[in-house]
Amino acid sequence: MYGVDRLAEDLTRLGVERGETLLVQSSLRSIGPMADGPGTLLEALRRVLGPEGTVVVYTATPENSNTSRLALAPTDGMTPEQSRAYWEAKPPFDRARTPTSKILGHFSELVRRHPDAVRSSHPQTSFAALGSQARELTRRHRWAGHLGQHSPVQKLYDRGARALLIGVPVWCCTAFHLAEYLQDDPPMQRYGCVITDPGGRRRWVHFEAVHLRDEHFEPMASALETGMPSLLSGTLGDASCYLLRIAEGVDVADKFLRGNRS
């Protein structure tokens, strides 16, 4: 059973530094049993980072979009009338209440629900942060920005933040999507999300943004491992971990995508 003291020691040994900003992606199961569940990890991170540090997590809600595979899956086999009723009943995104997608794990939702956490307002690809930089990192997250230049990802890149991947492959870092926005003439897509407007009315919004893909990230694993000289690896509890500089990783991903256009 891992406690806060042990996890804090492991984080320090891994290379986490006091006062830094960390984007955390985790498979909690890989850590092993923790004394107080997921809260043990959060407490350990905050102890090591100190009051000037910031924990950032991805709190996306892809189910809120009628262009998301996750959102469309439940409508398979429905009649047009049933599908229409399904979308008309879809609750609008509320950054204070809408839970993080279950595919992102318990830790992201734990941070989102913390009373001091701040969440960005994007109805599909929000982030939540806890710490000294939380408000600045999550403000002005534009709809078309998604995971690009007008999102918390760009701010993490610009501020020299790092990503801590706990039990997660190095190529799975969400921030690498920023590289897709840096390509020449990236493919675009029309997105739709349901929101509550300033007048309190439920409505759908549609916007054009970069067509995000996941399938090209796993093939860049070796390029990332050899192209990031500052990449650190170690263990947290039972979990294998990576600690990487987001800017360095995005630059490697950008170069890989430019050299492997399809």
UniProtKB/TrEMBL annotation:
Keyword Lipid metabolism applies: no
One Pfam family recorded for the sequence: Antibiotic_NAT
Keyword field contains DNA repair: no
Catalysed reactions, as listed in the record: a 2-deoxystreptamine antibiotic + acetyl-CoA = an N(3)-acetyl-2-deoxystreptamine antibiotic + CoA + H(+)
InterPro entries: Amioglycoside_AcTrfase (IPR003679), Antibiotic_NAT-like (IPR028345)
EC number(s) given by UniProt: 2.3.1.-
Keywords: Acyltransferase, Antibiotic resistance, Transferase
Coiled-coil residue spans: none
Family: Belongs to the antibiotic N-acetyltransferase family.
PANTHER family reported in the protein's UniProt record: AMINOGLYCOSIDE N3-ACETYLTRANSFERASE, SPBETA PROPHAGE-DERIVED AMINOGLYCOSIDE N(3')-ACETYLTRANSFERASE-LIKE PROTEIN YOKD
Protein name: Aminoglycoside N(3)-acetyltransferase
Organism of derivation: Kitasatospora cystarginea
